[in-house]
Amino acid sequence: MNKKLRILVVLPMYGGSLPIGNFCADALRNLGHSVRVFEAPLFHPTFEGLKKLDIGPEHISQIEHSFLNLVSQAIFAHVQSFEPHLVLALAQAPMGKTLLARLRRTGIRTAMWFVEDYRIFQYWKLFAPLYDVFFVIQKEPFLSLLSETGQQNAVYLPLAALPSFHRKADLTPEEKALYKADIAFLGAGYPNRRLAFRPLAGKNFKIWGSDWDGEAILKNNIQKGGQRISSEEGLKIYSASTINLNLHSSVQTDTLVSHGDFVNPRTFELACMGAFQLVDERSLMPELFPDDAVATFSSIEDMYAKLEHFLRAKDEREAYAEKAREIVLQRHTYEKRMEELLRHVEERLGWPCFEQDTRTEGEPEGIRKEIEALLTDLSLGPHASFEEVCAKLRKANGRLTPLETGVLFLDEWRKQYVKPKS
Amino acid sequence: MPRFLVIQAARFGDLLQTKRLILSLERLGRVHLLCDTGLASLAALLYPAVETHAFYFHAPQTECVREHNSRTLTDLADLSFDTVYNCNLSPLSNALCHLFPRERTVGYRPNAVGRTERMPLLQRVARMTAMRSTAAFNLEDVWAHLVSNPVPADEVNPRPKPGGGGLGIILAGREERRSIPPNILADLASVYVQTGQFPHLYLLGTAQEKKLAHAIRRLLPSSLQPRTEDLCGRTGWKELLDCVASLDLVLTPDTGTMHLAAHLGAPVQAFFFSSASCHETGPYGTGHRIIQVAPPCAPCLESAPCQRELLCHKAMEGRDFLRYVTAMARGKDIPAPPHIQFFETATDALGVHCILRSGHDPMASQRRFIRALLLEEYADGETVLPKNPGEEKLMELLFVQDRDWMINAKSYV
Fold first, then answer.
1. What is the C-alpha separation between B337 and B312, in angstroms, rounded?
2. Which residue of chain A comes nearest to B101, CA vs CA?
3. How far is CA B172 from CA A306, A348, B20, B141, B278, in A?
4. Which residues on chain A are in Cβ contact (under 8 Å) with B126?
5. Domain B167-362 has CATH 3.90.960.10
6. Residue B335 φ/ψ, nearest 5 degrees
7. Which residues in chain A are contacts of B101 at CB distance < 8 A?
8. Which of A156, A320, B134, B168 is deepest in the core (most CB within 10 A)?
9. Contacts of B94 in chain A (CB under 8 A)
10. Do B405 and A214 touch (CB under 8 A)?
11. Concatenated DSSP letters of A247-310
C-alpha cells in the first residue's frame, strides 16, 4: 500500500492487549503512516482510585458509567483533531456503542483486533457488528459466530512480534545474576500453570509475572514478589534463560495442557528474539511455525521430560531458536500484520477522503503549504487549525526547524499586528 | 493439604445451600466452616468431615459472647487458610474477612476502604436480583461456582425416595407472608393424605408454631386426627434429621427444612409464593416438585409491604387451585389455574434448574437465554448469541456492561 494513512490506535486501559497496541502503533509508524495513540492507560489510575473511594457499589457503577462516557468523548476529540482514516482498537479498548455509532456516521473506518480468547470475553457478541472490520486470533467456530452476529468482515489475523523491539538484551553482570535461570516462565498465575509448575519447585526455575498470590509451593520460585513485569524487563528475562517455558493459560485444572487453538504473543516474541522456548501444542501452531522451529509438548508429562532433555541439548536449542527467528522475521512481524490489516480494510471498504479544501478559519493567507508539511510530523489531521499546529509546536521538545520556528513567529506576529475580525 | 474456610453467617436454609460448595472444597483439601452458634451443632451433623467454628453473629454481644467470639477469631487467625470463601453480602461477615489476607478471600470481601466488594460472579448475581422475574441461577449453584469445577450437581444430594414414614408438613415460612395460610395448609394436607399413600402425618415447626399446629389440626378431617403427630418444638436438630429422612413427602413453603429434606433425599412438594422464587432457592436435586404462584407482581421484595392485597395468597384460596393440586397429587394432568406454575427440578452442567411441567411461564424464553449464557460462562457450555433485541438488551444488562470489559473484567467491585 502506497497511501500514507492517518491511524488512531486506541489502547485498552490495562492488560495483555496493551503492549500489543503499542507494537501495532510502532509497526504502523515503521510502515510510514501517521499514527496517533489514544493513551487509555492514563485513565486507569482513576478507575483504581474510584475503587478506593468510600462509595457504595450502586453509586460507583454510575460514576464509572459517566467516566467511561468521558473517555469516549476524549477519544472523539482525538478523532476530530486528527481526522484519521482508521480507528484501530485493541481488545478492551474503551470504545462504547455510542462512540462506534458516531464514528460510523462520520465515515471513519473502525477496526478491532480482538487479541483475546472469544470464550473468555463475551462483549464481542454485542460489539463486533459495530466495527467495520473485526480481526481475531481464532478461526472456526469463532468466524462463523461473528458472521451470525452480523459482522461480515471478520478476519483471522494471528499475533506477531516487533523485530525492532523483540531483540536479545545485552545484560550487565548484575542483570545476568538476577535473571539467569535454567527454566523461566513469564506470565500470570492461571490455575493450570500453578498445578503444572509445582513439580518444578525444587529446580532452578524462575517465575516472573503477576497473579501468583497464595501460591505456597512455588513461593521460592516466584520473583519480585509477583510484581507485573514490563515488556522491556521481559526481554532481559527471556535473554537470560536457558529454557523459556510457554504454557498457554487456562482456567481449567483437569487438563493442564489445554490444546487450544490460538498462539499467544509470547511464542512470537521469544521466536523473534532467538530465545529458546518449550511451548504447548496449539491447533493453529503448525500453520504458523514448522515443526523444526518450535519445540512443543503435548502433555504435562511430556513437558517435564522435554525440559530434562533440552537442558542438556544446547545444539538442538540453538537450532530451534535460529529457525524460529528466521520464520518470524519472514512471516510474523507486526509490520506484516498491519499491512494485512490495512489491506483488508481497504479491499472491503476503501478509505474516506478528507483532503479537500483543507484550509481552516484563522489561518494566515499563503501558509497552507507550509502547514501541510508539518501536519504528518505533528500527528494532526488535514483540517487541523493553525492554532492547533502552533499549540503542538509549543509543546514539542528540543529545537524546532526553521519552518516550525517560522510558523510560531507568524503566530506571534499575527497576535500583535492583525486585528481579529469583528 | 490445602485448608479452606467457608463463612456462612446466614440462616438454616443457607447453611444447607452451602453444601455443593463445601463438597467441592472437600475434594481439594480440609474444609472449615464458620457459622452462627445456633447452627453449629446442625452443621456438625450435616458436614461431619468439616471442622465447624461457632460464632455469635446475631446474639446480643454480652461479655460472655464477646469472649467466645474472640476465642473463635484467635483460632481462625492461627489456622492460616489457603482460601476463605465468604458467602454473605453482610457487613458482619465482611468485618470478619479483615482477619484474612484480602487476596485469599473469595466471594464478598472488604475493599481498600473496608466496604464490601463482590467478585465478578456475584456482581452478575446482583444484577440478576434486580430482574428477579427472569431468575435462572439457584443460590446453591451461585455459591458452588465460587470455586471452578464444583462437584456435579447430581452428586450433591441423593435422589428423592419415599422413606415410608408418612407425610411431613412444614407449618411456617420465615415470615407470615411466606407461610401458607392455615386453612389452605389444612386443605393441602387433606388432599395429600387422601391419596392413601401416607400412613402418618407430622406437623413440623418450632415451639412458636405450636398454636398454628393446633389450629391446623382442628381443621383436618377427624379421620386424620389419630394419624397426625404434632412435633412442633419437640425436635432437636438430630431428631428433625431423623424424622425428615424417614418421610415419604415433605409439604413445605420455601424453608430451611425443605433444603434439609433435599439434603436427605426426602421428596419435596414445595409451594413458592410471595418473595420466594423456585428459580433462586428451589429444592436442590432432581425430581422435587414445586408449585410456584406467580402473579404479575411476583416475586416481590420481602422487605417491602405488599401493595396487592396478597394476590399470591388469594391465588391459592380458590377451588380451582385445590382441584389442581388434588389432580397433581394423584398424578393426573389438568391445566393449571391462572398464575400457577408447576415445576420439577432437574440438573445440568451449571447446577439445578426448574423445568415447567404445567402452567404458563411468561418469562420462560428470557430465563432460558440467561441460563444458556450462564452455562456458557460457568460450565463450559456452547457459545450463545442474542437472537433478538430483547435478548441483546438482557445480555447487555446482565453480562456485557461496559465496565465489565473496559475496566477490569476480572476485578472485584
1. 12
2. A214
3. 65, 67, 26, 25, 17
4. 57
5. no
6. -60, 145
7. 213-214
8. B168
9. none
10. no
11. ----S-SS-SS---SS--HHHHHHHHHT--EEEE--TTSTTTS-TTTSEEESSHHHHHHHHHHH
pLDDT confidence of residue A375: 78
Looking at the structure, do residues A146 and A241 belong to the same domain, yes or no? no
User: Hey, is the C-beta of A381 within 8 angstroms of any chain B C-beta?
Assistant: no
* Amino acid in position A48: E
Q: Do A118 and B385 touch (CB under 8 A)?
A: no
Q: Is A74 on the interface with B (CB under 8 A)?
A: no
**Number of domains comprising chain A:** 3
Which residues are CB-contacts of B131 (< 8 A; sequence separation ≥ 6)? Answer: B397, B398
pLDDT digits (tens, 9 = 90+) for B361-408: 999 999 999 999 999 999 989 999 999 999 999 999 998 888 888 876
Contact: A64, B407; criterion CB under 8 Å:
yes
Of A51, A61, A149, the CB nearest to B111: A51
**Is the Cβ pair B112, A52 closer than 8 Å?**
yes
CA distance B84 to chain A (A): 11
For A:106-135, CB contacts with B below 8 A are: 118-119, 121-123, 125-127
Answer whether residue A58 shows pLDDT above 80: no
Stated pTM of the model: 0.84
Distance from CA of B291 to the nearest CA of A (A): 34
Indicate whether A361 belongs to any domain: no
Tell me: pLDDT of B212 over 90: no
Cβ–Cβ contact A163 with B under 8 A: no
Q: Is residue A359 part of a domain?
A: no
Q: Round to whole Å and give the CA distance between B380 and A254.
A: 13
Which cell goes with A106? 462520520
> What is the average pLDDT value for chain A, to the nearest integer?
89
Please state which of the ranges A9-23, A368-382, B10-24 shows the lowest mean pLDDT.
A368-382
Which residue range forms the structural domain that includes residue A123?
6-160+334-349
Q: What is the ipTM of this complex?
A: 0.75
Cβ distance of B395 and A125 shorter than 8 Å: yes
For residue A366, the model assigns a pLDDT of: 64
- Residue A12: strand pairing partners: none
| Residue A373 confidence (pLDDT) | 74
Which residues of B lie closer than 8 Å to A, measured between beta carbons? 82-83, 101, 103-104, 111-118, 126, 148-149, 373, 376-377, 380, 383, 385-386, 392, 395-396, 399-409, 411, 413
CATH of B1-110, one of 1.10.3470.10, 3.40.50.300, 3.30.450.20, 3.40.50.2000: 3.40.50.2000
For chain B, how many helices (H) and strands (E)? 17, 14
Q: Which residues contact B6 (CB under 8 A, 6 or more apart)?
A: B18, B21, B22, B25, B31, B32, B33, B34, B85, B87
Q: Does A113 share its domain with A204?
A: no
pLDDT at A138: 97
Q: Which three cell numbers stand for residue B32?
A: 472449615
With contact defined as beta carbons under 8 Å apart, do A104 and A81 qualify? no
Q: Which residue has the cell 445451600?
A: B17
Per-residue pLDDT of A235-264, as tens digits, reads 999 999 999 999 998 876 678 898 999 999
- Using the predicted structure, report yes or no on whether residue B99 has a pLDDT greater than 80: yes
pLDDT at B113: 75
**A21/B contact by beta carbon, under 8 A:** no
Partners of residue A193 in chain B, C-beta under 8 Å: none
- The reply to whether residue B402 touches residue A94, judged by beta carbons under 8 angstroms, is yes
What is the Cα–Cα distance from A139 to A156, expressed in whole angstroms?
6
Determine phi and psi for B184, rounding to 5 degrees: -70, -40
Average pLDDT of the residues in B145-165:
95
Is the Cα dihedral B271, B272, B278, B280 positive or negative? negative
CA quadruple B137, B142, B144, B145: dihedral positive or negative?
Answer: positive
Answer yes or no: do A251 and B82 touch at CB < 8 A.
no
